[in-house]
Structures are given as structure tokens and as C-alpha cells.
Specification:
The complex is a heterodimer.
Chain A: H1 2-15, E1 19-23, H2 32-37, E2 42-44, H3 49-61, E3 65-71, H4 72-78, H5 80-89, E4 95-99, H6 117-121, E5 127-130, H7 138-146, E6 151-155, E7 171-174, E8 182-186, H8 190-195, E9 201-205, H9 213-219, E10 223-231, H10 236-242, E11 249-255, H11 266-272, H12 277-288
Parallel strand pairs in A: 1-2, 1-3, 3-4, 4-6, 5-6, 8-9, 8-10, 10-11
Antiparallel strand pairs in A: 7-9
Helix pairs in contact in A: 1-7, 3-5
Chain B: H1 3-9, H2 14-19, H3 21-31, E1 46-49, H4 56-64, H5 105-118, E2 126-131, H6 139-150, E3 155-160, E4 180-185, H7 189-196, E5 203-208
Helix pairs in contact in B: 3-4, 3-7, 5-6
Classes of the chains: A alpha/beta, B alpha/beta.
């Protein structure tokens, strides 16, 4: 996904003189050709994430369309107040593209991980959040974001599904029993959900914000499970609000708040957080049996 | 509006309200190429009140220059007022950035100067005003170092009323490595004007005013 991001954003910068890119050293090598071609619009501020966000806000105030990019813990967690004030409070927009997600950087440790990024943006107004599940879903998101001035977050991951699903709407991937449980998988959680071997309807979205509440209301009649690749329960407020008139039960699965203090691979972390197929099956089975 | 009126209107922020008064007047009266008629022009000069605190002098200057009616000054901070104890660019004509939390204006100003340069507005100038205590915020130092590294055309003004709790050993100018520095009397309008009309940057104008009484 990162390679797709670099190639697409380089093309966007070439085509649209209104666009700009602000970096804080991360991925600077990959964007070196773009920086040579557009030295005034491709800016590397060094290891200064607060400044990266402030510069993006300033660029937007002059009418440019800034993209900014780093690991999720640095571009979101560290620069949270700049995102809140230098973008939102100024009524300015930007496109934030992160890598690393919850635990792609598994061996780097917790300093390089951000399970809470989407929850943090949920405290703020007006953020569209894309969580692509496949590299082929990324270019459309970037091109669309370049065309307006709103606030957009694109959360890239090294975890991905086998197949891409075009568009950003909420779609049913597999039909289960009529009026049975619906499992909504976000981004790269789709394949683990499909492999969990559950007799349920499986739906998919790569755009959890704004949540497609109309489609969700059409689908859910009784039991609903949300499976997200970031902090568990991040979408509970949005789902509850969407289904406030539907008697139903909800389960929210995702990355737990527990800091495991282990390294290993992303697959190890998925297992520790119960987000591998076996863990998902156990949690969802227990919920449906009302254990 | 007199300084006494400013003091009465905003007791908490009074020292910061009038510490900036002369610099603000010189900016809007003699330096900035911006008026109520050009407030949306892409090549207008920019001024950012980074510290945001005590904005009554700022509001008064903007009202005197016709950016909004002077009557707005009569109910600052009320439920229906557009003028709060920190300025909001969405609510106040002529206010370029909404500030209040310290340490945001310089980064925004760096981005604005870069954005203006990228679009070829080479005559447009960007100014940002900070307080000496505001320099305590580390975010400023990210912006100071980067602006120097890329030789950005930007003018910062530091109002020095010696309000930083631990002071700045070695002086404020020593924090702006790679910047051109001017020291002025923050109450001497001709000195202020002379420093602010110098071009090329990054440049910092340190305007000393009377010490803040705590």
C-alpha cells in the first residue's frame, strides 16, 4: 500500500498544481523524485511532526491542498493538538496518510504503534476515515481526496486482503442466514473474518467514517459484530447511533488496550489481541451463543 | 480605545492586551498590505497573532481600520459576540488564524509563507507575533530551526515583557539561530516600523515593553 501511495501521490503532484506534500523524514527517499520536480510543493521539514501539521494548516490557508504523511503514532498521536487546532479550528482541510497502523511495526515496539488513531480523530469534527484493505483500493481514495478541501485520513497497512473491493461503500461480501448475525469487517480485517468459518453475513467497508448508516440499518435485524483493525470499540458510538431504533445486540472487536510488550510479527499481535481467525471465531461464537 | 478601557474590558489578559498595542498599530497603519477590501485577496500580506491572549488591542486596531464595526467591542466574550478572549478566524473578519493555545502561530506562518512562495506571491509578506513566555512551548523551536534551514521569508515579532517563568538565559535572540535579529523599543513606533519594513528572512524583531506585573 505504501508503494501505491507513493506512486499515486507522485502522479497527483504532477497533475494538480494545487496539491502539496509535507513529510517529516519518513518516506522522504521514496518521494525524492517528486521533491526534485516540485521543490516548492514537496516539503520535508525533518523530524518535526508538530511542524508538519502546522505547515499543512498554513498551506491550506493559502489555498493549497496539503497531504501529510508519517507513521500513525507520529502523525496522529504526537500531533493531535496541531490536527485539532491547525486544521480543524482554522476550518482548514488536509489529507493525512499514515502507515504502520496498529502493529505493522510489530518488532519496533509500542512506540511505533497506534491502535488509537481512529479513536483520536473521532473526537474531532469532519474527518473522513479510509482504511483500505488492498493496495488497489488506495489510488481512488487519494485522487478523490485531492479534489476537495475537507479533512481526510487514509490509514495504510502492510496487512491486506486477497481481493480488492472497488469504491468506498459498505457492501455484503458473503450472505449468511436470513435475519442472522451480521459481521462488519473494516479494511484488512475482512480476510481473517472470512477465514473464521462463521455462518453469518459478512459485510465490508474501507470507509468507517462517515459510517454508512443507511446500509447498516438495511442489513442488521438482530445481532451485529464490528471487527476493526484499531482500538476495540472505536465504532461503538457510531454503530449504536445508527441502530438506535433497531432492537439488537452488538459486539465490538479490535485491538485491546493491553500493551503486550512483545515483538514478533503482526500475525503474533493479531493472535494476542484475538484478531486472528481462531480468536475471532471464539469471540463471535461466544457472543452468538450468549455465553 | 484607550489602554484604560482595555484594562477594564479584560482584566485577566490586560497586560498582554496592551503590550502588543504599538506593534499592532504600526503593522496595520504602516506596514501590512491588507484592508477590509482586500481581506480575501490571495496575495494580501498576512499577520498571525500567535499568542492569542489579550486580543483586545488586536480587535481595537482591526475595528479602527474598518474590518468590523466598533460596536462589536462592547460585549467581548458574550454569548452572542464574535469576539472572544482568544480570536477565531471563522468569526472575525481580518483575523487570519484562530489562536489561544500557545505555540501554534509560528508553524502555521511557516506553512503560509511556503504556500505563498509556491504560488508565486513573492511580494506577499508573512508576519507572526509571539510572546516571550510563549517561546516556552517546544513547537516554536521546530519552526524556528526549519525556517532558518530553508531561509524562509518570514518575520516573527516577539513581544518581550519578561513574562517567561524561567526567562531566556542568553537572551531571546539566541533562540533564533540563523535568523536576522532586530531589537526595538516596543513603544517606539518609528523604531518598530523601521524594523518591520526590513525584508528578507527569516527575521525576528524583539520588541521590549514594560515588565508584566504579576
Amino acid at each position: 500500500m505504501r508503494d501505491t501511495f507513493v506512486a499515486t501521490t507522485t502522479a497527483i503532484l504532477e497533475e494538480d498544481p494545487r496539491t502539496a506534500l509535507v513529510l517529516a523524514d519518513i518516506s522522504a527517499d521514496a518521494f525524492a523524485p517528486a521533491m526534485r520536480r516540485h521543490p516548492d510543493r514537496v516539503l520535508n521539514v525533518g523530524i518535526r511532526e508538530q511542524l508538519m501539521a502546522g505547515v499543512a494548516g498554513g498551506l491550506a490557508l493559502t489555498g493549497l491542498r496539503p497531504f501529510l504523511h508519517s507513521y500513525a503514532p507520529f502523525v496522529i498521536d504526537r500531533a493531535y493538538e496541531q490536527i485539532k487546532l491547525d486544521l480543524g479550528h482554522q476550518n482548514a482541510g488536509a489529507v493525512i496518510v499514515s502507515i504502520g497502523g496498529s502493529y505493522d511495526a510489530s518488532a519496533e515496539g509500542y512506540t511505533h504503534q497506534s491502535p488509537g488513531d481512529v479513536a483520536l480523530l473521532d473526537t474531532l469534527e469532519g474527518w473522513t476515515v479510509h482504511v483500505p484493505g488492498h493496495p488497489d483500493e488506495v489510488p481512488g481514495m487519494l485522487w478523490a481526496a485531492a479534489r476537495h478541501d475537507e479533512r481526510v485520513y487514509i490509514r495504510l497497512s502492510s496487512q491486506q486482503n486477497a481481493a480488492a473491493y472497488p469504491g468506498t461503500d459498505l457492501k455484503v461480501v458473503r450472505r449468511g442466514p436470513q435475519n442472522g448475525a451480521v459481521v462488519l469487517a473494516v479494511g484488512p480485517m475482512l480476510d481473517p473474518v472470512l477465514r473464521a468459518g462463521l455462518d453469518v453475513t459478512v459485510a465490508y467497508t474501507n470507509t468507517p467514517r462517515p459510517l454508512d448508516v443507511n446500509r447498516l440499518r438495511e442489513l442488521v435485524t438482530d445481532e451485529m459484530v464490528m471487527v476493526e483493525p484499531y482500538l476495540a470499540g472505536t465504532s461503538s458510538r457510531a454503530v449504536s447511533a445508527a441502530l438506535s431504533r433497531v432492537p439488537h445486540r452488538e459486539l465490538h472487536l479490535g485491538v485491546s488496550r493491553t500493551e503486550h510488550r512483545g515483538y514478533g510479527s503482526p500475525a503474533d499481535h493479531a493472535q494476542w489481541h484475538g484478531l486472528d481467525p481462531a480468536g475471532l471465531r471464539a469471540s463471535i461464537d461466544a457472543f452468538l451463543r450468549k455465553d | 480605545m484607550t489602554i484604560d478601557a482595555l484594562k477594564r474590558a479584560d482584566a485577566k489578559h490586560a497586560p498582554s492586551a496592551y503590550s502588543t498595542l504599538d506593534v499592532l498599530w504600526v503593522l496595520y497603519d504602516r506596514v501590512l498590505r491588507v484592508s477590509p477590501e482586500t481581506v480575501d485577496d490571495p496575495d494580501r500580506d498576512r499577520f498571525f497573532l500567535s499568542k492569542g491572549h489579550g486580543p483586545l488591542a488586536y480587535y481595537s486596531v482591526l475595528a479602527a481600520k474598518g474590518f468590523f464595526p466598533e460596536e462589536w467591542l462592547d460585549d467581548v466574550g458574550s454569548a452572542t459576540s464574535r469576539l472572544g478572549h482568544h480570536p477565531d478566524r471563522v468569526l472575525v473578519p481580518g483575523v487570519e488564524v484562530g489562536t489561544g493555545s500557545l505555540g501554534h502561530g509560528l508553524g502555521l506562518a511557516v506553512g503560509t509563507a511556503l504556500g505563498l512562495r509556491a504560488q508565486g506571491y513573492v511580494q506577499t509578506r508573512t508576519f507572526v507575533l509571539l510572546g516571550d513566555a510563549e517561546l516556552d512551548e517546544g513547537s516554536n523551536h521546530e519552526a524556528i530551526a526549519y525556517a532558518a534551514a530553508v531561509g524562509l521569508d518570514l518575520t516573527a515579532i516577539v513581544i518581550d515583557n519578561r513574562s517567561a517563568t524561567h526567562g531566556w538565559p542568553g537572551g531571546i535572540a539566541a533562540r533564533f539561530i540563523g535568523w536576522r535579529v532586530s531589537h526595538v523599543d516596543g513603544r517606539d513606533r518609528d523604531q518598530i516600523e523601521a524594523a518591520l519594513t526590513l525584508k528578507g528572512g527569516p527575521r525576528v524583531v524583539i520588541a521590549a515593553v514594560e515588565k508584566k506585573e504579576s
